[in-house]
Amino acid sequence: MELWVTEYQTPSLGFSCKVTQTLRAAQTRYQHLAVVETEQFGRMLLLDGMVQTTEKDEWVYHEMITLVALNAHPRPEQVLIIGGGDGGTLREVVRHPGVKKGILVEIDEDVVQASRDFFPELCCAFSDSKAEVTIRDGIEYVRENQARFDVVIVDSTEPVGPAVQLFSAEFYQNVFASLKEDGILVVQSESPFFNADVIKMAYQGIKQSFPITELYLASVPTYPSGLWSFTVGSKQHDPRRPVTHYREGCKYYNPQVHEAAFELPGFVRRIIEE
Prior knowledge:
Layout: E1 3-10, E2 13-27, E3 32-38, E4 42-47, E5 50-54, H1 58-72, E6 78-83, H2 88-95, E7 101-106, H3 109-118, H4 120-123, E8 131-135, H5 138-144, E9 149-155, H6 169-178, E10 179-188, H7 196-207, E11 212-219, E12 227-234, H8 255-260, H9 266-273
Parallel strand pairs: 6-7, 6-9, 7-8, 9-10
Antiparallel strand pairs: 1-2, 2-3, 3-4, 4-5, 10-12, 11-12
Helix pairs in contact: 1-2, 5-6, 6-7
């Protein structure tokens, strides 16, 4: 008998992978968590039935959500990550030679534990000397820290459940206050094919606080439509132009990809211009 896991990306579209083993399935305090072994993508982490990361393609997302902002900032020394409990974003942050401290604030400790148990290539940064992992509400953490960070990365799930407030204009205002005078914010903002409303919400919310707001794209095979967006807000630096060029060990990111990612197709440009 064949077993398949399906993420219903829209009410009429599903993404399915053949499963060879279920490694964990549990209800956490905040969401349903599952780790499965798939034939196509290796181990896969799902939250509330939505694919969060897989062994075979995680590097695209994690490189692109981190290195665009880190390389656009001349001194990305203090970096805050909201969410990202699997550890992949933290891994890329602490690898950057300019970073002195990477702080991961994750609300669900079970996500962190699942990464420790099943994703050694992602959780490897949890014990890094430059890393700090804190289990608490990232929204409260941001409110309590003013003018502290050079870069803030919001590596959240879709805007459902505990992640809803991470897409609000009020939260972006608080992030603005938590950044130093030349700080940069980057958030994942979903698929331009299926989630135009989320892109508008993130882009317009960030634009209310940040003088420079841009959208860029990357191809992530296991995310809805395979085309994924990120929205960046900057106080001073042009996020489209890397001023540092760290890319050691990268499989997707390079300076040319960095600049090209901001060249948007017409239909995506129209989403943020409406």
